[in-house]
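User: Please predict the structure of the protein below. I'd like the answer in structure-token form so I can feed it into my own downstream comparison script.

Assistant: Understood. Taking the following sequence of 201 residues as input:
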Amino acid sequence: MVKNWTYKTPGIPDEAFNQSETIPGPTKEEIRVITIAKARLSEGDVVVDVGCGTGGLTVEAALQIGGKGRVYAIDEDIGAVDLTKSNAAKFGVENSVIVTKGKAPEALLALPIADVVFVGGGGVSLRAIIQTVHYKLRAGGRIVINAILLETATVAMAELKALGYRDIDVVNVLVAKGKQINSGTMMLARNPVTIVSATKL
């Protein structure tokens, strides 16, 4: 078992993950750090990552919850499933990660009750995904939704309010990364991401 991230803090550099041109991700480093912080993970937690992509959040969560916890990662793309498995192995968390091919919300039904659920996007199924997550999330559990589109964030907030979630928090994250050029450091903006998080009553 090789562990390529030996720090307690999250924030694995993007380039450290196995990636594919056909699979989105990983979730950018700074977004992952804030997402993990909003999840309020504890050792031994059960976590679900809906739409795991390359597995960036899956790996970061697994490192936080330790060997007694479990991360259930799902994606409808078999390429994403394989890539997430390879990244779990690369960072030494394969024994804490269970990756399955499936489409949300249906794939959520077979999973155990969770302490934390991550949702990446969700598209037209987002409302149904949140409703299904509601029944798979323990009381006091956390949901964290990463939205690239404003419409996605709006749907997420409305549905969480309708379901009676508390501590609904919305943060829009704009990150610019430095790139070295001949004359100095140029800051390049990345796409803003809205992170919606809340606690189930």
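That's the full token string. Residues 74 and 100 are 5 Å apart (CA to CA).
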